[in-house]
Design a protein that fits this description.
alpha/beta; Rossmann fold; Rna Polymerase Sigma Factor, Chain: A; 3 domains; 7-stranded parallel sheet; 4-stranded mixed sheet; binds nicotinamide-adenine-dinucleotide; binds magnesium ion
Length: 386
């Protein structure tokens, strides 16, 4: 590793990815220095993290918690800011080299754009940013000489397969999907599944939104669109295969037919560490994979009739323009409604489809068009729910 330590800002440090990223940083104090921590409203954990990791700055997005965080850190050197705009400002701070976007949903878009404009490299967990505005984000990153390192395990797998192959054309990529807790079920059986059942992912422990997305295969749909932009692919170069063991994290097929796969036990700390430490592979004591304990790795076709969200994502990607942005906003409302017992499991894809059909299509959206499409979709989605 170069002698200068890498200065990291973590957006969403109190979440599943954020807390695991802090474990990675704690294990490599010689490599990383923490500059910024941010949270939406979990003030208690943010305060605890600030006292332990002593960043330069913390931001609490929920302004009503500002006084509490500020008082609790009054005896430290940590600077405290609050509000959404503060997120966009802290990523621009001079010492920051890399911003880990570990916040969830559309809220990641504005700070990611601000970080890119300020020339900060991005370790991207917040897939919604690329789903909403992948064309705009990747173009801006190119103009600003900024690299976007994937944190999502599938995209990290593909990136790891591509190291040393960047000059070789990709024939296609194959994203693996666990299939979630409802793999093998049919539509009739999904009508009555509960929030608690949907929140039980077989292989990963994650935030609530992505766990529901994994159960509905929307997560894989979002990842297809994320991959399209990260690796500059054509729509027909992206396949999905269900692999219930989640050991192969994804694959790349090259133009000679050779396929490379990246494997390991499911543990997000590995892709987080690879993104933050790139191009170096840092040591870890993560549990090692034992082939003898997995005598069979299996693969099957995704059932896109039952799990319509995946088909909707392919359709939205094909349509292009603001369609993926609309799908993302509809899905954020749908997941929230499902988590609050307002709608059933299957109604989530109904709502997504309704919004895709109803919101005005914009073929070449500007940033303002994305903001407007997001707002308009949330309005139409709420109307549909009422
Ligand atoms: P989480 O819900 O556990 O954590 C989200 C974090 O973002 C929290 O720190 C929260 O305070 C913050 N946050 C939420 N809404 C915010 C807002 N409006 N403004 C500012 N901050 C906000 O989520 P997670 O599971 O860690 O996922 C984070 C992102 O990483 C998501 O985009 C998800 O798709 C992606 N991801 C997660 C995993 C995983 O294993 N958890 C794997 C791959 C990708
Ligand atoms: Mg993933």
């Amino acid at each position: 590793m170069e002698s200068k330590r890498r200065h990291i800002a973590i957006l969403g440090s109190t979440g599943s990815i954020g807390t695991q990223a802090l474990e990675v940083l704690a294990a490599h104090p010689d490599v990383f220095e923490l500059e910024v921590l941010t949270a939406n409203s979990n003030a208690d954990l943010l305060i605890e993290q600030a006292r332990t990791f002593k960043p330069n700055v913390v931001v609490i997005a929920d302004e009503s918690k500002y006084q509490m965080v500020s008082d609790a850190l009054a005896d430290t050197d940590v600077k405290v800011y609050a509000g959404k705009d503060a997120l966009n400002q802290v990523v621009e701070m001079e010492p920051v080299d890399m911003v880990l976007t570990a916040l969830v949903g559309y809220a990641g878009l504005a700070p990611t754009l601000a970080a890119i404009r300020a020339g900060k490299h991005i370790a991207l967990a917040n897939k919604e940013t690329l789903v909403v505005a992948g064309e705009l984000v990747t173009k801006l990153a190119q103009e600003c000489g900024v690299n976007i390192y994937p944190v999502d395990s599938e995209h990290s797998a593909i990136f790891q397969c591509l190291v040393g192959e960047f000059h070789n054309p990709i024939e296609k990529i194959i994203l693996t999907a666990s299939g979630g807790p409802f793999r093998g079920r049919k539509r009739e059986e999904l009508a009555s599944v509960t929030r608690a059942q949907a929140l039980k992912h077989p292989n990963w422990v994650m935030g609530a939104k992505i766990t529901i997305d994994s159960a509905s295969l929307m997560n894989k749909g979002l990842e297809v669109i994320e991959a399209r932009w990260l690796f500059n692919l054509k729509n027909d170069q992206i396949d999905v295969v269900v692999h219930p063991q989640s050991i192969i994290h994804s694959m790349v097929q090259f133009t000679d037919g050779s396929i490379k796969a990246q494997m390991g036990l499911p543990d997000m700390k590995l892709p987080i560490q690879f993104a933050l430490g790139y191009p170096h592979r840092l040591n870890s004591n993560f549990e090692r994979f034992d082939f003898a304990r997995y005598p069979s790795l299996t693969f099957e076709q995704p059932d896109m009739e039952t799990f319509r969200n995946l088909q909707l994502a392919f359709d939205a990607m094909e349509r292009g323009g603001n369609a993926p942005c609309v799908l993302n906003a509809a899905n954020e409302v749908a997941v929230d409604a499902f988590l609050n017992d307002r709608i059933g499991f299957l109604a989530m894809s109904d709502l997504n489809e309704h919004c895709l059909r109803t919101v005005d299509f914009v073929e070449h959206p500007t940033y303002e068009d994305y903001v407007q499409s997001d707002e308009e979709t949330r309005r139409i989605a709420q109307e549909y729910l009422n």
